[in-house]
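User: Here's a chain of 323 residues. Predict its fold as tokens.
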Amino acid sequence: MDGNIHTNASHVHNITLLAIESSCDDTAASVICDGKILSNVVAGQDVHQKYGGVVPELASRSHQKNIVPVVDIALKIANRSINDIDGIAFTQGPGLLGSLLVGNSFAKGLALSINKPLIAVNHLEAHVLAHLIDNPNIPFPFLCLLVSGGHTQIVKVNSPSSMETIGKTIDDAAGEAFDKAAKILGLPYPGGPLIDKYAASGNPLAFKFSSGHVPNLDFSFSGFKTAVLYFVRDKMAEDATFIDNNLSDICASVQHTIVTYLLSKLKSAALQTNIKHIAIAGGVAANSGLRNELQLMANNQNWTTYIPAFEYCTDNAAMIAIA
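Assistant: Prediction complete.
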């Protein structure tokens, strides 16, 4: 999704699609008919928790185990049989190669067996277009802050088939920064949602962490992760109970730093492009701190904001279906 993307897309009526998403560690399937999501099923993978992160080989094995039941359940909830499907959409990338291969191969085999078209979908475009599920009339152009475990971008969305990345991370993603900070604090994987949970009762100004200073609309999170690591190491050397005694304040400060940094760049992008329709997407868009601060900034800047429902923020197949 670097640069401009142009695809030919025309709206067709009464078409029923089956969509499959397998880019990381969630196996997902969705059925859509004429733009309406009929089912959206996601199977997560607990196997990665003890390793503190996603293990690609284990992820692809779990996809192999989950994909048939997930597709079957999605069809049942939608009250459709495989013979009712007019085409199959799947996540082509980006993502973990082994995980993508499972969904890709399954979709190709199924499409061949029922002699129906196969539609490859860009995972990042799908996150952005998830807004169209509940907001089919969202005005173009709009700006979308796409934030997840693997990606952090500011995207200028000119139309459903034309997007331009105007800012991106030069190293790590915001979601990865959340998870790494959580790991440093000894929280289990995935740690991002736990930081959000503990931050709710903490003081966001208790501790100060530096955020990345990069030009233009780009981001950097490597320095922030190092700052958290050294801070916790030094404090724990002085007092072994420091994390236990200050967990909520540390989490609130971590969250405040990341969210403030993300929104400062988003504000700059809005001013540069003179666009006032602002959206967020991706797994980190489920973060309550980001949602709340975005709303406050929107009130100050006179923005109209768009935030997908929680189930359409994290990896899911409904976003593949709508894309």
